[in-house]
Amino acid sequence: MAQILAPSTQWQMRISKSSPNASPITSNMWSSLLWKQNKKVSPTSSAKFRVMAIKSDNSIINRLEGLLNLDITPFTDKIIAEYIWIGGTGIDVRSKSRTISKPVEHPSELPKWNYDGSSTGQAPGDDSEVILYPQAIFKDPFRGGNNILVICDSYTPQGEPIPTNKRHRAAEIFSNPKVQAEVPWYGIEQEYTLLQTNVKWPLGWPVGGYPGPQGPYYCSAGADKSFGRDISDAHYKACLYAGINISGTIGEVMPGQWEYQVGPSVGIEAGDHIWASRYILERITEQAGVVLSLDPKPIEGDWNGAGCHTNYSTKSMREDGGFEVIKKAILNLSLRHKDHISAYGEGNERRLTGKHETASINTFSWGVANRGCSIRVGRDTEKNGKGYLEDRRPTSNMDPYVATSLLAETTLLWEPTLEAEALAAQKLALKV
């Protein structure tokens, strides 16, 4: 992200009633995408058949589409709430639907629910009930109307957070008075890779082969350079519809790889918005017949990996003299480098090699405008003497609740010894 601006009021976790003229995402949005992706596929392929069915005026698909697009608002006050939670791997999103008697504007108006934790790797079969607590709501871009997406976290029937519930600990950190006083802002750059369904090879790549070397694909246009733009654009609009604070998208360096940015977000909102945006992206790629990958290094070799760079600032960093506060934060981050690396996603050692715009996973570094460092500080921040830092270590599959709250904990709550601070300052050439 080029710059951290003022956050939206969405962090209050309220949503307004959707416009009656707004329409949800429908599968006919994918016709052009599917035609382009399957030009060379035989007419008997399922993807091609799906396109032909969508084009047919009298097909079963079109009749189904009509039912999916039904606006139930004039006929009932009831809405559909899609409860979303994180599964046992810590990266998979799960969801199920329920009817709510009337539209709601805040998660406190929603009932708790439960699910079979033995089927998600989160509970044993003889005690499988896990309880969902609604925490944030967004407008549903797929069903439209007053229907909603509900971000939940998971608890035992006794009210204890289960091990994969990272939101609970993050909420404790963000509710600390010292953290609240500093109003931490986050801008998260989520990179992802689109894969062909059957072969799990990047979109636009020859099956079993490779495109030309990196260079022409970043922020590109053209059928031979940009693969998956329809998905990126649909996701962009769906997030705006939902009320997610998405701030931009770009085509990434590796072909078939994209990025979107969420933020600036305040505190726990950052995690809620990233998880909701990931869920929406999973649903869109599902409709498009494309596989979403958050693997940090989907293709070995001379190709960029996928990260989740996290831009961070506090009130003190944003005020006059903030650059000195940023340098103190960098010092703290250097002393807890291993703690952050262990919390920044699975498989990160394959990405943080010191090549392809990354620092080595084993060495902490910082620099101004240096994308090969652990922490990058923008030139505007150096020039203005205040601003934000970019933590380039988090990988694409990191848990945003963990990454954002750990940044706040390390820079605002954790205090190193004076000896460790002095040694780190000398090593990093920091004067704080």
UniProtKB/TrEMBL annotation:
Residues 79-159 form the GS beta-grasp domain. SUPFAM superfamilies: Glutamine synthetase, N-terminal domain (SSF54368), Glutamine synthetase/guanido kinase (SSF55931). It comes from the Eukaryota. Its EC number is 6.3.1.2. Its main location: plastid. SMART domains: Gln-synt_C (SM01230). It is found in: Plastid, Chloroplast. It is an enzyme of class 6 (ligase). It catalyses: L-glutamate + NH4(+) + ATP = L-glutamine + ADP + phosphate + H(+). Pfam families: Gln-synt_C. Residues 163-432 form the GS catalytic domain. One of its GO terms (cellular component) is chloroplast. One of its GO terms (molecular function) is ATP binding. Keywords: ATP-binding, Chloroplast, Ligase, Nitrogen fixation, Nucleotide-binding, Plastid, Transit peptide. Belongs to the glutamine synthetase family. Homooctamer. This is Glutamine synthetase. It comes from Glycine max (Soybean).
